[in-house]
Amino acid sequence: MATLKDVAKLAGVAPITVSRVINDPQSVKERTRLKVEQAIKQINYMPNSIARSLVTNRTNTIGVLLSNIANPYFSDFILGVETKARELGKNVFICNGMNYESAMSNINLLMEKRVDGMILTSFEFDSIGLQEKLLRELERLNANEKHSVQFVLVDPSPKQTLLTSIQIDNYMAATVAMDHLHELGHKAIAHLSLNRDADVWIDRFKAYKDAQGRINIPLNTEHIALIDKEDVRLAEEATYRLLLTTPRPTAIFAANDTLAVGALQAAHRTRLRIPEDISIIGIDGNDIAKHSYPRMTTVVHPRYRLGELSAELLIDLINGKEDTASLLIKCTLQVNESTGPLLMQTEGINEQHD
Questions:
Q1: I need a surface site. Which of 104, 132, 228, 289 has the fewest CB within 10 A?
Q2: First-residue to last-residue Cα distance in the chain
Q3: What is the pTM of this model?
Q4: Structure confidence at residue 354 as a pLDDT band (50, 70, 90)
């Protein structure tokens, strides 16, 4: 196996010069650096990552902690993180954090791995108190003088934090969805969401209420369904109950695409035509929406770009960039086949309930 001394001999330089090329290439003249890099390639030298980390105090790894690794929302996000991180010379560890205990356990694991920094997505623990507790713990770790670690939070809940974050404008995304339905003539709009104490769902629910208020539609609690779990089957059952109300809603704004697919299934089950009898819109732009029937109209998050930006922002922090600032991400409407103009509709539905 080739050694650092072999590279130095082939390049005609001192071993310390090879070490500098590997660990701090900007400190070496370009002509010398290119000669060393050519020698490294020629004899296929692989630097010892452990020894290198002892010299640089870095492992060139970052951690990503997801709130739910099974959620299809994160597929493009992770691809964006990993692609950009590798481009910038970092390897990626991916962990899951379904609850406070598992999140803290995996944060500690990543700390033991001596990652240079972490990206954390929003968490929806059982109480806002646990979410705040996690944020305060991350702030403490970031401020630790002995072993500070950099963090980038993606759409954190609560939003108020001392850490660098990328915020998604959830209120505006929901407003875009509601404006689309209003422009199509819909007024009797139902809302399907999660019964969670997290800013993402609170903001989207508030946007729904505000949008209806702007066209002077009183809040109809019978047209609001909140379920406890992000599950297509539960969303289908909740939508079925919404469709039994009188007057029946002519449109449904689902707080994300997974719930919107459940709403689609309920409409199919009751033999309602989409979008002639009922329009359905979601948020996120997940793959699940791309493959629904009919194809879902949704407000799209740039998830791949969100992953790239998260990695870029974190690595800037790791490299000591001083002008790094938090970002606000906006979304775009993608009109497909599940929404259409309001038509004359009948009050009843054809029950196909199991």
A1: 228
A2: 67
A3: 0.78
A4: very low
